[in-house]
Each structure stands twice: as C-alpha cells, then as structure tokens.
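Review form for a predicted model. The reviewer records the input and the model, then writes brief findings.
Reviewer: anonymous (R2)
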Amino acid sequence: MKKLLSVLLSLMLIAVCVPAMAEGRTGTALFPTDENGYPDLGGVTLSIWETWDTSMVDFCKDYNDLKIVQDLANKFNVKFEFRMAPAGQESENFTLMIASSDLPDIIFDGGVANYYAGGTTMAYEDGLAFDYTEYITPENTPNYWAKVMDDPYLNKMALDDNGRNVKLGSRVSGSEESCTCMWGMMVRSDYLEKTGLERPETIEEWDTLLRAFKDIGVKYPLILNKSGYWKSRNAFSSAWNIDARNFYITADGEVKYGPASDEYREYINTIATWYKDGLINPDFTTDTQSDTWAMMCVGEGGALVDHIYGYAANYYRIVEENDPSTALLAVQMPKLNKDDELTHVMVTNRSLENDKTITEASEHKLEAIAFLDALYFDEIEFEMSNGIEGIGYNLNEFGYPVITDIEYSETASDDEKQSMRLYQWETESDSDLDYILTSKYCYGVQPECVKLYVQCGYDRYYNNSNVSFTPDEAEVRADHQTDIETYRDEMMTKFIIGEADIMDDDTWNTYLSTLNSMGLEELTQVYADAYARYLAR
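Model under review:
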C-alpha cells in the first residue's frame, strides 16, 4: 500500500501538467485512454463471479451498490454484472455455474484454482480458461508488468509450467522488504529482567530461560495455543531449518517432508521435554488465542507465540499501556548455535493471491484484460483497499489510511456503509514496510516483531503458491495428502504429550513406515517434480 500523499501528488500533477503526465503515465495500448491512463472500455458489461460477503446483504444488492465500484465503472466506462456466490456455498455455487455452461467473463477469488476439478491447469486443458499470454506486454498491460513481471521473484509465480501467464489481476502480497507473516515470539520484559538473562538466541538458551521462568514462579513459562502459529510459522523448528508441517528445500536443493526428517525428531523431542517438565500450558491443544492472551494478562505466562494482530486489543490496551513494566519483547527465531545463520524456512506472505480467470467463453476478453491491468494503478488500488475518505478511512499523521469501523457499525446508514472498501479487489497488500511499522502493526512489540523476522530467509520454504501441479499430480495429492496430514497431526500431539516416545526407535520407525504406506514417497516425488519445473521456468 502506498502513501496517499504520493497518490495525491500524482493526481495534482495530472491536473496541472497533463501533457507531461500523459507521456510518462502510459495506459494500455488495447483501448483509448484518458489523461490518467485509464482505459475507455466502451460501455461494455463485464460479468464477474465472486464470493458474496453476506454481511453486506442488508445494504447492498451486489457490489454495484458500493461507491468505489460506481466510481471505477465511471472512470473505465464499463458496467458490471455480478454473479454472487454466498460465503460458505462457493464450491456448490461454482459447480452449478460450470454445469450450466452460462459462464461469466471473469472468475474472481481464486474460484478456478479452488473449486475446479484439476485446478487451473485442467481449466486450460478443458477450454474453460482463456490463455491471454500473448497480450501480456509492457504496452498492453503496463501496470501488471511494472508490479509483477518486472519483479524476478513474482515473475516466476506469474507463469505456469507451460509458459502461460496466469496471474493477471492477482493481489501482490508482501514485498522484498516486507516478507513476513506478522506474528511473533514474545517474552514478558519484567520476568526476563528477574531471571537476569538476555533474550534467547538458541534453543539451549530458550530451555534455560523457560526453566528460569519456572524458578521465579511463572505458572506457564511458554504459552502455546491451538491456532498453531508456533507450528505453522516454524517458530522453534526454524533452528533445525525444517518446515515441521510441510515439504521444504534442503541446503542441497532436495525436496523433503519435514515431519519425516531426523531434525523433526529432535525438534519434537525438545517440545515434548518442555511439556513433560511443566514448561508449557497443559491444554495447549485446546486453548484458544483468547485463552492464552487472558493468561498473559493475569501474569500466568512468561512467553508466547502468536499472531501480533490480537496483541493490541488483548494485551497492550489492557495491561501494557497501563503498566509499561509488563511490556512484551520480541525474540528472533532461534538457532541451534550462536554462529549459525538465521533460518532459511521463514514462512513468507510474499505471493500472488486471490487469482482471477478470464473465461474462454467471454465475448469481452480484451476488455477484461485492460480492466484487470487497470486495477494495479496506485490510486485505484488505494480506493479499493480503503473506500471513501472520511467514511471508509481517515488519514493518520503519517499520511497513511486508517480503516474506520463503518463496515461493522450497527448505527451507520446504508449510504455510509456503501462507502466502505472492497478488499477482494485489492491488488496490493502489506507491501509497504513503513506503512506496516507506523500505521498497521505499530503498537508496543508489533514493529519489533516485524523488523526481526524480515531479516530471516525463505529460500528453503516450499511455497505452494509458487508451483503448479499437473492433473495427475493433483490426483495424487487428493488421494494421499489429507490422510498423511491427519496422521501427522495426531502423532505430533501424541509425541508431545507423552503418549508416544519419538526417541524410541521402534516407535519412530513405525511412524515413518505408516507415512510411507499412506503414499508419502509418491507425494514427495510430486512435490519434487513440481519444484523442478518451477526452477526451470
């Protein structure tokens, strides 16, 4: 997200210096454009399938009632026909639409990837998806080209294994400077001071700190919860440079399954030892995020791992703001040895998401291309992300937007609610690190968490959004992955709470054999082949 100041300056320059701006601000070559570079789509109607946020049903018939959509339609000289899939019924609605053969011009919200049998690859093979690759050029799609194709990391994501460009209109999440998932490993500063220790850097120092917390009377030295950020973000398994829940890339470039590795055995044994020694809250498998923040508020926890979104409302405002001595401190992802590099398996938010697919059946394919490209204009993206100024958002002292509570207000009028944002049409999210640090995650420990984790690497993290699977590979995944992951989770819990001993060779070998009998070797080959094709793009 860009500063509004820069957007306003751009618009001021347009107003006072149209000839110079028109030369430097290029619109699509597919259609006539105005002085802003906006395409004139000739008044056509673009039909769009997407998820319907049913919380809007009381004040909107569809997204055409939103002021920002009306403004965009006016700027681009286009109309919209929405085919809304009620939230929770997307799959059924999508299936019925495909069966009817009455297809829209564009399918939003990753509908094809999520709900079409065989995914995006099969959609091209079946003639559902339109291959627009030849039209993706700096002249035809200048905004998409600048935001995605000129970025080497995103460029690889934008292409599939057949060289097709498949990400036009997708949201750019994160950036090279803002590449983390906004979570944190946090410790109570006053408890840390009482122990006389420094913030831990290694697993051994974590062990020492948790035991010191226990010695000074902290009820739960480490608080975990069922939301599982300690698992899904590789909080402690980062020390072994493995993804403890999924596939990852070894230092030698090999694809391996983290939960079947020797490093995983050591990692889980560490967590199991902490649990056995009373260093972790005993109900961590059922405790919610609210439960764990409540424990922190009453002083029962010494450290926790969680998303930093809930910290402001659930701890900072309640405890820390009134008593700074209870402040939480951010801790870097641990290493095994002090002189080790920082982890290479940080889970990154850097991706292209919320895919949009132009259908082969569309009679307005070029209009759809120009429309999706125009969503990447900075001021258009800003409007979609924030709504109408003074109602949907206000500016803070840094010139950044702060979303109001209008969309949740029970007293706001329909007209006010229709001034809200439409985040499904965002084309950029969490890419501006300065915005994140000053205006989004800007309270207490939040900025420090973000700044620490952007130092970590994600070059060995296996990002599923980077790769594409063939129909045969998709079938292998469908046949095996759910069963494997269910067993993985069941055994992880048993290992940690002591119902099974992960250090017992017979138990460990039985665990591995069971994973292989469920198809792990075949599944690993699928992920290895997909990764090899990704590297070859």
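Findings: Confidence is low (pLDDT under 50) at residues 1-24.
Further findings: The chain has 22 helices and 15 strands.
Recommendation: see findings above.
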